[in-house]
Each structure stands twice: as C-alpha cells, then as structure tokens.
Amino acid sequence: MRILVLGGSGYLGRHVAERLRALPGAHVLAAGRSATADHAVDLAADRPDRLARTLAAAAPDAVVN
Known about the structure:
Elements (H helix, E strand, L loop, with lengths): L1 E5 L4 H11 L5 E6 L6 E2 L7 H11 L3 E3 L1
Parallel strand pairs: 1-2, 1-4, 2-3
C-alpha cells in the first residue's frame, strides 16, 4: 500500500511516517516543503492544480494529512 503523508518531512509528520513504515507492505512517501520530502508540496501557497498533479504523480492508495 502506498501512503502519502502530507507534512511528512515536518516534526509530527516524520513521527507518523515512521509508524506507518512499520506496517507490513506499507510504502510511505513524504510530501512537504522540506528538501528531504519525496514530493514538494506547500499547502499554504500551492494552487489546487499543483496539489492534484502531485497526488497523481505519487499515486497513493491513502493520504494522511
């Protein structure tokens, strides 16, 4: 299962992503403003179409926000 964690490179998101990675079969992707994020997303500044393109590119089965 592919899981995209919005804010996954931030303090709380890193902890959530770490727990999710412990699940069998979970492939966790981080989306956020940090350079370490798998997908660059800024929910405060990005337009909805950019977020839609990011979601399409990540192709997650689930999104955690």
